[in-house]
Amino acid sequence: MRTTPLLVAFAALCAACNTSPRTPPFIAHPPPGSIVLSIVGTSDLHGHLERGVAFSGYVENLRKSRSRDGGVVLVDAGDMFQGTIAANETEGAAVIRLYNAIGFHAAAIGNHEFDYGPVGPAAIPLSPSDDPRGALLAAVKLARFPVLNANLFVKDTGYPIQWPGVAPSTLIDVAGVKVGIVGVTTIDTLKSTNAANVSDLKIGPLEEAITAQARSLRQQGAKVVVVAAHAGGGCWSFDNPDDLSSCMPDQESSNVARSIDPKLVDVIVGGHTHRAIAHRVNSIPVIQSKANGAAFGRVDLYVNPASGEVRVAHIHPPHAMCEERDDDESGKCTTEDYEGAAVVPTPQAQAAVAQDLATATAKSRQPVGVTLPARLKSRGSPSSPLGDQIASWMLEARPTAQVAYVNIGGVRKDLPEGPLTYGAFFETLPFDNRFATATVKVASLRKLFARGLRGGRGFSVAGVRVVAKCGHQGIEIDLLLGDRPLRDDESVVLLTSDYLATTPKLAEAGIPPEAFRYEEGRTIRDALVDHLRKKGGTVRAAEKSPISSPHGTFPLPCSR
């Protein structure tokens, strides 16, 4: 993501509003009687095991360095799962094995930890006996570290969740210092995963959960408290940790830091937004290190075990392990010297996932059987060329449907030019969603599409042409099947994913979850691969989006 002129102006205006104290960015020498605790934070690995293996070498070097003067606390801020063949086919178990081998002390639950649903191929519960968190809890059972959440509650009772292997916080001993770790997740978690898997849950304010757990940990003797928060923001400059002028103006992790007592919390490790932070807010270091194993964060603390005094020694900028590209994806990863020694992945980390990576690599190289003469872009406005193409393939694979609807956020990466491989297609559609079909009124589609175009958002569609314009009630939608306008009282067969079928936005448009028929068995991704292998040949994307407007621009200049 690039900084917009508006954001730069806003940040410059608010720089003077920064409430962080003007303390030195780092302290060169430890106070007498102090040791060094290095708090290392990761987040949003999304199953990139090979980068986790490389990360193990950095951790090993730091542990050797700290063995002379302190210790290392290693925490993850969530979204460990979802996004690679190895992670998805093991429903997160491969990631847990890797984290066990690296020696994580704790990990928070992120929104994508819920994506796998019940144990087995179904991504949502399809019978009363299906546990919507079955896959998550099976993976948690393998963990030799606590998985944390303090702000998820049972909707009907209001009680905190009580799941085996999951706790609100934990207390550990590192180099003779009691360290408390609290886990929380973003207020948007229940809206950012498959709704069917979390429909019985509600979420509470992060700051309330953190405060309650931090006080309890302090009462139990914690000298240091670390928060693993699957919530974040983003900054673009890391020269001065007290200068927030390059940071997003309303970022969740910073807002949380401002709302809690800095005497209770020493470090916040953030995540979720796939951006970077290495700053001090309300005297609390807040770190976050992008996504997909591209980088890690670190804060060094001076801790006096006798007096309990804690001082921030150094807030390190995010340490990149992979090069960055303009498409916001991590490119080639290389190891280097760290803490004065060459980085070598540990044998334990390599062995933990060697078979998973080998199996995934072999599958990723399998040809799909079609060739793309040009790159298909996953981003665009109001729809993306790749999203529109996927919607068209969906209708070809399920020809009894008339309209296919795809959310742009579910299309994660461009498809490259040339012969298509399973690995490239997987990176485009990493979610294990299944087809969902419903007969719906055209009036409901109009509401759904109008909502999808508000505020500059968009979607992809196939089977109909969408003409959006401004009217008395804001955005108005005309739908054409071929050249024939559709009437509100007509019905069409809608094809989408089980994820979208269970989201509130479809229900609010008059298409409730129970209206759909949900397929079992193969994922949408694999069903499309089967279709493309039969289809073969060269795929040429449509030149025009199926969404247009007489106003000529998106977002539309409508009053509401």
Derived structural class: alpha/beta
| Average predicted confidence as pLDDT | 91
Outline, from the CA principal axes?
globular
Report the biggest beta sheet as strand number plus sense, adding barrel if it closes: 7 strands, mixed
Radius of gyration: 24 Å
Helix count equals 14
CATH class of the largest domain: Alpha Beta
CATH architecture of the largest domain: 4-Layer Sandwich
Widest sheet: strand ordering = 6-4-3-2-1-14-15
Beta percentage is 25-35%
Q: Which blocks of ≥5 consecutive residues have pLDDT under 50?
A: 1-23, 326-330
Distance between the termini: 27 Å
Helix content: 25-40%
Would you count the extended β strands for me? 31
State the gist of this model.
26% of the residues lie in helices and 27% in strands. The protein has 560 residues and is an alpha/beta fold.
What is the element layout, followed by pairings?
Elements: H1 5-14, E1 35-42, H2 49-66, E2 70-76, H3 85-89, H4 93-102, E3 106-108, H5 134-142, E4 147-148, E5 152-154, E6 166-167, E7 169-174, E8 177-185, E9 201-203, H6 206-219, E10 224-230, H7 252-259, E11 267-269, E12 276-281, E13 284-289, E14 295-303, E15 310-320, E16 322-324, E17 330-333, E18 337-338, E19 341-342, H8 347-364, E20 367-372, H9 385-397, E21 403-406, E22 418-421, H10 422-428, E23 435-441, H11 442-453, E24 460-462, E25 465-471, E26 474-481, E27 484-485, E28 491-497, H12 498-501, H13 504-508, E29 517-518, H14 524-535, E30 537-538, E31 547-548
Parallel strand pairs: 1-2, 2-3, 3-4, 4-6, 8-10, 10-11, 11-13, 20-30, 21-28, 25-31
Antiparallel strand pairs: 1-14, 5-9, 7-8, 12-13, 14-15, 16-17, 18-19, 20-22, 21-24, 23-28, 23-29, 25-26, 26-27
Helix pairs in contact: 2-4, 2-8, 4-8, 9-14
